[in-house]
Structures are given as C-alpha cells and as structure tokens.
Prior knowledge:
The protein is α/β, with parallel strands linked by helices. The chain has twelve helices and 16 strands. The strands form three sheets. The chain has an eleven-stranded mixed beta sheet, with helices on both faces. Strands 14-15-16 form a three-stranded mixed beta sheet, with helices on one face. The model is unreliable at 334-338 and 360-376 (pLDDT under 50).
Amino acid sequence: MSEYEAFLAYLGHLARFGMRLGLERMEALLERLGHPERRAGVVHVAGTNGKGSTAAMIAAIARAAGLRTGLYTSPHLVRFNERIAVDGEPIGDEALLEAYRAVQAAVEALGAAEPPTQFEFATAMAFWVFAQAGVELAVVEVGLGGRLDATNVVRRPEVCVVTSLGLDHTQVLGGTLAAIAAEKAGILKPGADAVVASPPPEAAPVIQERAQELGAPLFEVGEGAPVMAGAQLYRWSGRCEGLSGGRLDVATPEGRRLEGLRVALAGRHQLLNGAVAAACADRLRARGWPTGPDSVARGLEQVRWPGRFHVLRQHPTVVVDGAHNPAAARALELAEPDDVVAVCGSLYLAGEILAESAPAEARTVSKAAGIRRPAP
C-alpha cells in the first residue's frame, strides 16, 4: 500500500465515526499545530447553495489581484487533493502527504479519547498547507451549517459571506429557513464585514439580528430593495449569454458601478454568485486588500469551477451539475424542453430534484428510483 493509499484508508477509518458537530476537537488540534489558521487573512463562506462557486470566484479575484491565495472546498470530484488549492491549483501529492503526516502526528500527540472527524482532519490539513505555502488570503468554504462547523475556528476573518439559503440537511440544521439561517449566521464575527445574498423573508431577521449583536457591518446583495433592515445594498443586474456565462452589473452602496463584468460560469444563479463575490472583493478593498475593479473583472472572467453547469459537449449539448437539493435544481434553467433528457443520480430526493430541474415535457431518468419514465 502506498502512503497515499494509506492516507485514504485513514480518512475512511475516521469516516466510520460519523459526523459530530462541535469545535472543541478542532480547537485542540489546531493549537497543537501552532494555530496555522491564524497566519493568513480569511474569507469564510457559508450558504445552502452557491457557496462553492462563490468561494471559487472570490479566490479567482484574489489571484487576479496578485495575492497568494488558498481555497478550501468540499467535496472533491475526482481526487482528494482538489479540496485544497493554492493559487488555483490543487496541491500535489507530496504537499498533501506532508500535511497528513503533520496532522496525524498532532492527533497522536493529543491522545484524545475522541478522534477528529474526517472533515475536521481535512480542514486541519488545509490550514496547515496554507500556512506552509505562505498563503496571504484563504477562502474557506463551510462544510455543513456554519455555527458548529469545523471551519468556524477562524476567529478574525476579513469578510464573512452567506450565499443563497434553502432547506437542506434539515435533520441536522433544522426544518425552517429561520433555523437554517441561524446556523449559517453562526460564522459572523465582531467587526468582520458580513456579505449576504438577499435572504428569504423568514430568514432575514435572524441574520440581521445576529449581525447587530456582534457589531458586524451588514451588506446585502440583491436585485431590489434590501430585505434586512440596516443593511447596505449591493444592487446587481445581469443577463445570461447561453452556456458561455453572462454579463453582470453591480452598484456599490456608495454609488460606484462595476459594469459589464463577464462571468465565466453559466446560469442565472452564477450571476448572483458573481455579484456576491464582487461585493466581497469590494469589502476586502475597503479593508486594504488590493481587490479593486480590475481584479474583480479579471477574476470573474477567468474563474473555472468544474461540475457546476459544466458543458461536457455540444450537438447534442450535455451538461452536468452537482445540484443535490430542490433549491439547487431549481436554479438550472434547461432550454429546449422537447429535447431534454434529465438524468439524476441521488441517494435521496431524486424525484424532487428532477421535478425542479426538468421541464414537464422532458424525459427523465432517476438512478435512485431505478426507473425511466417518459413524458406524460
């Protein structure tokens, strides 16, 4: 067995202990590692849908600004290395194995009766890699929820971002939008700018009140009037340009305009994600980071994020997307309904996902249900 295979086997061993929310194990582990999470500026990104794409866009803007940039996301598509990227590239096997050795040694030194979860171990690896690589700005995506997520050990983030909210993981996060908003708002920190995509009315007071409690400046990204009292508005508008992306305009609270921004990722939902990323970059700029309008334009145009409305081929057009809940599926605007075949592979909610993503006229295939049903 190679060392890489041993690493994967170790992660599989940790996975047997399941998901255990809480920060105590993570804080002890990072203390043992010398607090690598404190060595770079951090943008912390939570949300039900769009957080991975938004994090990728923010990281692309930071790279365009000349910053040494880390990006931590989950899950991966093909190889674990994809979860931890430095300057737009997944880390190599040797860097990954160095992080594995360091974190495993810290776990053994702690000798705790309760081992870290798989996600906690991976998150500690990411922070260790970023510290070793001299990352200046790390963009960190929440794994699940926010308040008790392993990534929420970051005490002084530069900006906290909350993307679109919806019902997902309700057995853990709660069965209402207000309950889910409370978990996502758990990443907000005193003094750190909070950039939030316009939330549903049920969720808005929860985020607004949490920001006020913490003294976190609140910025809303939306198309119309703000729904959170006291929030400053980044107003956006945009248009899709087929499968090649879209164009985006963003007006800042001070009245400055970022116009004609080219967003490389396709779908109207990616225009919203792009607007959130642009607002985050503007808040970073206000805090002294070099993420000005030129960096925003270049980052949004250069971003790549495989597996999200990813066009594999044309004639016929084949698109794959990681939508895993009805709200995410609703964002997929499938054209030419008479020619659509929607395929869904899901452990749960396959019917609901297909109902949202595929027009009524489409033929659909459900892996979870094991059937193919023609259009009625």
